[in-house]
Amino acid sequence: MKSKEKRNILILIGVGLIIICAIWVCTNLINKKDKETVGNPTQETNNISRGEYTKVEQDGSVVNTSKKLHEDKEESGFSVSNISFGEENGETVLKARITNKTGTDQAAFFGNIVLLDKAGNEIGRIPVSVSATQNGETVEIEAYITESYANAYNFKLEK
User: Fold this and answer.
1) Which of 14-18, 22-26, 36-40 is predicted most confidently?
2) Does the structure show a pLDDT above 60 at 36?
3) How far is the C-alpha of 124 from the C-alpha of 114, rounded, in Å?
4) pTM: predicted TM-score of the whole model, two decimal places
5) Which of 40, 93, 95, 150 could tie 84 with a disulfide, CB 3.0–4.6 Å?
């Protein structure tokens, strides 16, 4: 090989090494920035609210803060208590304990959680399955829907 060819090969190898180093540095800087953003959310991020009756937790879940929604309720002959309502993993979720106070044993049924705004207008429905209960028995219910209703003011149970 001629010295001119050797020199051109060395230049190409040098340019290639510089490009590889530049890519490596840029990738590490981007990854470091992403880790800092995810690992250390700012105070502003923690205070984001999606509505009057919601707050966003540090883990990204949305929690309903309406006192009216969380009050124990007597609906369709059932007592509803220990109510948890919000959004988890893109789903609106209602969890509660339900006690049969109808005076008789009840077969399993499908009902609806009717979500209400502050004026009492219906804003959405979440289907719910309630297992068979004996009179006075308490069971857990969970109702999920992929639409965003976490900002509801109140709800009622329709049998």
Assistant:
1) 14-18
2) no
3) 6
4) 0.65
5) 95
Output the six-digit token pair for 71: 């009050």
Strand segments (E) across the chain: 54-56, 62-64, 73-75, 78-88, 91-100, 109-116, 122-130, 138-145, 154-158
Look up residue 99 and give its two tokens: 């006690």
Q: Which two tokens stand for residue 31?
A: 């990854």
| β-sheet with 109-116: strand ranges across | 122-130, 109-116, 154-158
Give yes or no for a contact between 155 and 114, defined as CB atoms under 8 angstroms apart. yes
User: CB burial class (10 A; 0-12, 13-18, 19+) of residue 115?
Assistant: buried
Mean pLDDT for all residues in the chain = 83
Q: Please state, in angstroms and rounded to a whole number, the distance separating the CA atoms of residues 108 and 137.
A: 13
d(CA 50, CA 58): 14
Nearest alpha carbon to residue 54 among 115, 113, 96, 128: 115
